[in-house]
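Practice record 12: protein with manganese (II) ion.
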Amino acid sequence: MLENMIDLSQVAVVKKMLDSAGRVVVMAHKNPDGDAAGSSLALCNYIMGLGKEVTVVLPNAFPDFLSWLPSAGSVLFYDVEADKATEKIAAADILFCLDFNVISRLGDMSVAVSASKATKVLVDHHLFPSNEFDVSFSHPEACSTSELVYRLITALSGDECVTHDIAQCIYTGMMTDTGAFTYASMRKDIYIIIAALLNKGFDKDKIYRKVFFNYTVSRMKLMGYAMYRKLKLYNKYNTALITLSHEELMRFFAVKGDTEGLVNQPLQIKGVRFSCFFREEQPGKINVSLRSVDDFPCNEVAAEFFNGGGHKNASGGELHCSMDEAVRLLQRAIQKFKSELTM
Ligand SMILES: [Mn+2]
């Protein structure tokens, strides 16, 4: 049996709304990841099963390795078809807002969503949800929004409503948001849900390969280069840093997503508790990714030194300076957080 998480009186409210709704739009955050795409498509497939008109509208495309997700071909992308997307949003009775906590996370699309008079239902696991939503299922304790969608639809219609397609979407979101169940994945409910999903008869190992074994040769070589030539260890501080300049990214023909996950790699080194990756997206503009293990608060480092924030073990930020200056900033940061890094 699953432990209770979502509020059943709110589920009843959603049920009523769905019963009387004509048109529904499901959306997720900009630069959608496996959880954003998986949770949206799971919910979309469920609502389609109810016989409603439903559209998934995303601010921009998800990575190629998610294009096999059931119904992925029917998604409307705001950055490509803004007029059509705006029309759908304006005509909807309900907007399901998945995997983000403030409407501004939709980027340019947020204008159309804020202007809509539709009932906005939030389903999300990020901290600090805004009050822009009419109904909120906000549960930072959930491993993923996909887990919450599973809980929502089974609370609405029981396990029978979970089709083979829906199960694959939900599994993908749960898997990607936990690094294939290597973090944020301690709650036993996660595995009770997975067992229920596997009953629907899909091949979870195949999903793993579709999502994670998708490198191009140039990406593999870039990863090797980064690891062999660009990894720096601050042993005294149990900290690792990888930097990639704009020139280096160009040299390896890096495209969006090619450095995904690189920041996690140094955490595999014995003793490393804090891993940083600086990627010079454009000359002078540096994207900062931070990862940690245990209690080391990346988000505090991100907020204080890198104009960013995020979760305790996974945060990000942005700098407008040279790579040398960024590295010096990190040196100051680890000096400041020395006691937490060396315990
Ligand atoms: Mn998520």
